Every structure is written in C-alpha cells, then in structure tokens.
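Re: your question from the hallway

Yes, I did run it. Sequences:
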Amino acid sequence: MYGILGYSDRWTVRPGETVRFMASCTGVRRYRADIVRLVCGDDSPGGPGFKERPVATLGELDGRHQPIEIGSYARVPAHPAMDAGGAFAVSLTIFPTTPGAGEQCLMARARPDRRAGWGLFIDDNTRLRLRIGDGKGAFATLAGDAVVPARRWLRIVAGYDPGTGEAFIAQRPVHLFPLDAPADVKRARLEMLRPADGDLDLTLAAVWSGSDATPRMTRFYNGKIEAPALLRGPLAASDIDALLAGGRIEGGLVRGLVAQWDLAQGMSGERMVDTGPHGLDGMLVNLPTRAVTGARWDGSIHDWTRDPGQYAAVHFHDDDLEDCGWESDLSFTVPADLRSGIYAARLVEIDGTEPEEARIPFFVAAPKRGKRAKIAFLASTHTFMAYSNSHYRTDDPDMEMKSGNFLALNPWELYLNEHRELGLSPYDTHSDGSGVCYSSRLRPLFSMHVKNRVWAFNGDTHVTDWLEARGFDYDIVTDDTIHEDGLASLAPYNVIVTGAHPEYWSTRMWDAAVAYQLQGGRLMYLGGNGFYWRHAVHPEKPHVIEIRRAESGARYWGTEPGEAYHSFTGEYGGLWRRIGRPPQGLVGVGTIATGFDFGSYYRRMPDAANPRAAWIFDGIEGEIVGDFGSKGGGAAGDEIDRADAALGTPAHALVVARSEGHSRYYNIVPEETLFHHPTINGEESADCYADIVFYECPNGGAVFSVGSIAWPAALAHNGYDNNVSRMTGNVLKRFADDVPFAMPAGRDR
Amino acid sequence: MYRIADDDAALLAEYRRVPKKRHSLELRRLLNRLRMEPMAGKIVICVREPYKSWYLARMGEKRGDPVRPLDNRLFGKLADAEWALLKLRWEKHSGRSLPAGLEGDG
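Structure:
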C-alpha cells in the first residue's frame, strides 16, 4: 500500500496553465497516468460512494523512487575566509531541546565519514564535543566536562589552534537558575593537525554526511541557535569570558571576526545574514522555525517586530520539511474548455496483482475573464494544508478520551507513523515536543487523499457530490485564489458555498470575505469550526503556511510564551476571535463545542416562521432536521457553532433551527470556558448546540450558516431526498438568484 | 484519581448489552479510565481492510516504531475488536480477571 506517492507544484490552476506532478514509486515498475474529475472521495459505508470521471490520458511511465531529506539546518557556502589555517574559534548561544538523543551538530565544516574538517557537537553523553580531522586519518577531539542541560540558554565558545594543538570548550548558562552549573571551561593540548575544511560548506544544526545521495545531511540538532559566529586567532581568556558573559563580538574580538550571523534579520525568509566583514550569508533549509524567543527575550515584548533582537534565534528540528525536491514526471496543461472543478492526476500501477494507485488532486478555477457560474464552491486549500500529514492519532495519548472511543488506526495512519520523512502537520508536535508552525505542500500530503478519513478535503467532496447530484452549475474558488486575488476572486459570483470545515483564514482572505459581503455577495457556510484560526502565507512561497496556536482555542499544542506573532507577516496569530474579529460577525455563528462520538439533529426554532426565512423550509415537514447522516448519524456534529450577539451575530439574524441532544463527549471549547467546571459537556451544558442562522446583508447580500461539520455528510442521505438536502437546495437556489435581498426594517432589524 | 473497584465489573455486562449512546455515567467513567494510557506499548485496534476487518496491535516504544500485530485474530466487526481490546485493558487496569458469563465472551 502507498507504493505510489506524489504531489503537484501548485494546487490551483486556470485554463491554459500547467500543473506538474512529482511521483515516487516503491515496488511499482510501471504505471498509467490519467486526469480525472473528482466528484466524491468518500467510499465509507453510508456515504455517497467514491465517484470520479476520466478526463484525459497522460500516458504510461516507469516508476522510480525519489528520496526525501527531512530535518532543518543552515548552510553557508565555503569561502576562503573561513579556512582554519591558523587558530580559530566559534561562538554561539544555544537552547537545546533534546540533548542526549544522539550526537547533534551545532556548527561544522566537516564530513565525518572522512574525519575531515572541524565540528562542534553535543555528543551522546550530553557534553559539548569538538572534533577536528585532517581527512588523512589524523583526528583529535575534546569533550567538555559539564552536562549540556535541556531547555536552558547556554553560551558556548570553543576553539582550536593547529599550531599548538591547544583546544578549549567553554559554556555558561545565560540565565542562571538556582541549580544550574556555573561556567565551565575545559582546555587540553591535542595533536597538532590542520583541519581539512577547505572546500566544505559551513553548516549549523546538521553536518554533511559526505554523500550526495540521501541522506546528505546527518546529526541533526533539535533546539534554538542564536548569534553563531566564526573567529580567527587564539582567544585570550578574557575574550572567552567576554563572549560567555555577553555573546557579543566587540572590542578586540572584532579584529578576528570572520562571520557573525544575525538571525534577527530577514525574519520572514530563509536568508541567514552575515554582519561580518565578508558577507558570508547562508540559507536556512527545510523551514526551521523563526520568530522564536532568543536568549535576550525578557518578556517585555511579545511582538518580534518591535525588537527583533529579542528574537535573534532559529529553532531547528530534525523533522522539519519544506520541499521533497522530486523531479517531475508528468504535467497537464488545462484545456480552455475544461469545467472548473476538482481534478486529480490518477496514477495506477500496471500489471500489479493488487495494483497500487494514487491520486494527486488539484483545483481548476475559472478563467480570470470569461463566463462564470453563479455559484462558486470554496475549496479550503489552506485548511487542507493545515491537516497535511497529521500524526496525532499515533502520537497523542489523549485521542481515545477526545473521541470517546477506542483507537482504530487506519492504514494511512500506520504508514505515516513509520514514514516520518513525509513531515508533520501543524496539529503535531516536533520530536522535541515543540509545536509545528509551518506546513508545506511540496510533499505528498495524506490529507489530500480520497478514500480516506472523511475530513477536510475528502469530507468537502460531500458538497461537490451534492452540487453535481442536484445539477447545480458551479465554479471552484480556493483559499489560494482568495489570498492572491482578494475580492476579485469572489466578486463575480452570486454565492460562495463553503465545505464542511473552512477553518483557516489569512488576513487577506478574511478581508476579501468581508468586502464580498459588503458588495452584496451571499455566503453559505455549510460547516463548523470555520473562520477560526488566522494563518499566514509565506511572502514568496505560496506553498507554505504558518500557524501559531496562541492564547486559546481547541488545539493540540500551545504556542510558547512570546511566540504568538507569525514570522511570515509579523501579524498576531491564533483565533480570529482573539484578534477582535469573532466569526459570529462574519457568518453569524462561531465555534462552541467539539465532540466526535455521535452527531445529533436540529429542531426548528420560532424564527423559522418569520416570513424572511420561511422559504428556507419550503417542502420541509416537521420539527426535526438532520436526524441522519453518514458522520455520526446526525447533521449536527463533530464541531459545532452557535450564534452569539455578544460576539457579533447581527441583531437581525434569524436562528431558524438549533441542535440538541449532544453527548458527554462534546465539550465547550476553551475560549468559552475560562474556568473549567464539570458541566461543560454536551449533556449538561446549556450552551452546547449548533445554530442554523440566516440574515440579509447590505446591497442585496445574505448569509446562511449551519454551524456543523457533519452537515454535508447528511446531504446524500436517502438518495439526496431529505430535509438537509432540501434546505440546502432551497437556500442555494435563492442565493444564486439575481434578485437582491432587502435588509429588514423596523423591529426585525 | 478514580480507581477501578470490584463493583465496576458489573459495568462490563452493561457495555455488552447497552448501545454506546445510552451508556451510564459509571460505565463512561470506567471506559475513560481504560482509555487513559500512554502511547508507548499501548494496545490498539488497527484496520486491516477499511470497513471490513480489524486486528489488535501494540504501539512501539517511541514515535515511528512499527505498530506490531498482537496475535493472529482478525475481526469482521469493529465492535468485536473493541470488546477484545476492552477485555485486555480491563485486566490490565483493574488487576481483576474478567467476570464469567458475559455475553459473547471468549
């Protein structure tokens, strides 16, 4: 299983544009490639069934394996100024998070396979260790006496003089805690040898393995590094003391400065700026985390843009990944007449006994100019990226309690557990326990698989399936198009229909949604826990998003103190609610509870009889709506939202239905339960319900929100003949109609 | 912390008899206790063929370790796999053997 994996260079394309596909095969000798239109990815019992239609044939190809290099580090190209012909020293400040978890490189110009060059490491024995080799068999090493403590800032200076063999390692805690060891300096006279470093790049947080084949890098370091510097010439004891005391290259030390990298500069990118005399800039590889607190952070500021010097550190992880860097085997240029929709490159093994197959989805948006449908379905591509390759079901011991069930691990979860090289999700923690802030889509993403967990991308195909089954003509817009083009991507449509879980919104996306409503656009929010987290997009790399789990919210990890501001934008991260823009102000409802055992139903509310909303119930009998569905047996479930005037639900909004009967495994979200108590569960809380809300907006617009992730999973029940489908259809037909809505007057306003 | 007591054995019969949605508070508390385990070495259910067959397996000691099948049993119903798992967790956490006479036991 998973003998073919792949990804595309872009997710959203328009007619005339080309999407490239990268694939890697394990045990698959040859495969056939087609383009298919994806209608529904859910093959679970009770669901609509898996549906796709062939569109084009790409051909047959030989399978080949392509490797992945995971782990972040920094690299500075070799330069003659770095050569350690004479005495040299390194200085840096570190915050190691996994000392003792194998040897980890701090800074090096080395290739350990030949014992060539020099490197400073944290060794297996949690001591600093300097290694020097001439590449011809002679080598020397010195280890410090003091333990390298975990999660403490430590200043380090180490050096070697080939002319005398004198070597030293010095370390000192930056903030002395009562039980920390004081400064420790170890000196020794080692063999006199010249480090063979002439053509070697300088690296931080990993070292070259000596091979150009995977793994090219090895001995990854977990933790933060600040103010790395390379110096020439023997250091006097007073110089070492000065560096240990302040970590700054100043006074007489400046004469010997080769390079000093200021990790507070260029915070939104990957360039590592050298402030020394030679301009030896480096690059950060595989997205180590930036905008993290440094050794000088004193808690007085939380916004790195106000004093980047307090954030002059980078957090490296052995499981960071930006780009698999695979070569492309396939491409597809979108024909001018191809309908907007969800498509995939389908790769199927030829002649396999149980043929391997993979689908690499992409989204075809309508041409920027030309005829459009009146309806657009919003593919929440940034939310899909957030869920990427999540490991919480194999890594988080609390999952059984959260779900109210015993774990039943699926094949894809077992695969991801063992294939950590595919990288993590912002729902995961790194191997050192720190939260994952970045997610890239230049890698195979299991969150984009069909015939998979009915969640995010796969779950949203319930809506496209229903649109097609009910014969609605629609285009696709994506988070990418909204973030890139803003209002222009939404403006042509009478109505935007979301999927089950449009959870992540960048500021540009949020502003575009507001502007769309103001110009009279209609929004159908067919999900729950939407419009919840703010995220950022890399300023130059649209394939990378950033998420900070600041302050509150239902979350799998919490942002470290002082690290709530995105590195990509400088914006404060976390819940939109904590940024003063609760989703109730945009869509009438906002998250109130989560639970994953059973769904429930809605009951018609008095507002349903209001003439402004009565048409929503045309053809719907009885009080109960949605007491069915393939997700937990009810249309109100998983993550649910409710109206709240205090958080911005418009005064004229009509709550036409409300869910009830939720279980004990539903719990009110943290931002609503400032002080926890035993009655925040679905059985006992008075607040645990989903609201269906309708209201009119200026210039003929309107909003309809269902406040439940499980809603789309009820659409196909009974051959699409049910009250959830009927209500959704009633609203969509009216919202697609050109006739403007009128804002209510008088008491209804 | 709640500790499993002798009387709780009766709740296993309720688990067999009563649909999940209508479990008593006491049974839910017992199930919560049986689910509170660290991941290292935890016995879980794994899907062999989606929606068709399941087996019991043991998590590795650390992240990324393979999840190894516990035995050769293959369950055609998820509920049967859950019951098999529950029995193992009961014996581990209660220190008591399984009461006799539970419907479908064994």
